[in-house]
Write a structure and sequence with these properties.
single chain; 233 residues; alpha/beta; Nucleotidyltransferase, domain 5; 5-stranded mixed sheet; 8 helices; 36% helix; 27% strand; disordered C terminus
Amino acid sequence: MPVLLALDSATDTLALALVTPAGTRCCEVAGGAQASARLLPEVQALLAAEGLVLGQLDAIAFGQGPGAFTGLRTACAVAQGLAFGAGKPVLAIDSLMLVAEDARAQGAGDEVWVAMDARIGEIYAAHYRFTPAGWQVLQAPALYAPAALLARWADLGEPQAVAGSALTEYAAVLGERRNAWPRARSRAAALGALAQAAWQRGELLDPADALPLYVRDKVALTTAERLARGGVR
C-alpha cells in the first residue's frame, strides 16, 4: 500500500489526509483566507504525527478544483513545491468528486449529482456514478446559474442523490430534494480514498504538469452586473 499525502483547499475547509498501510489520518481546519498560512504547518504536523518525512511519501495528491480560485492555487502550488523538493509525483483530484465520495460514504448511493456554491449567484455542478472500477464522470464539472441547473435536472431526469453546499445556499430555487446531502461528514477521509484510488489507477503526474481546474474565468462581478442581479453599488 502506498504512503500518500493529500490536501485540498477548494472550499472554506482545509482538508488533509495521510494514507499509510496502517490507515488514513485525517485533518480538517478552517481554510478560506487562512489556507495559505495554515497549509504547510498542518502538513508538517500530520507527517510528524505518523513519524514520517516527505522523502517517505510515494506521491502527493491535491484537490485541483473546481472551487475557490485562491484555494485551488494554494493547494496546487504547495503540492508542486513539496513534490519537486522530495522528487515525488503528484495526483490531481477532482474536488467535486470528493463531495460525491463523501456523500456515498454517508449513504447517498452510487449515483450522485454534486452542487457546490460557487458564489456570485452560481453553482459548480457535476454528475458521477460509482462502479467497481471507481467513479465515472457522467456530466463534467461546469458552472451553472441555479435555474439553469434545475432545468438541466429536468432534462436529464430527477437526480438519484444531490450533495453539496448549494442545496442550502440556493434552497429557494433548487427546492427540497429527496436523498439530499448538503453537509460533508469528512472531506479529508473522502480525499484520502480518492487519492488511493488514483494511485491504484496509475494517474501519476510530473509536478510540472499539475494545474488547477478552473471552470470560471472571473472571480467578481462588475458594478453593472451586481445591480442587474439586485445588488447594491
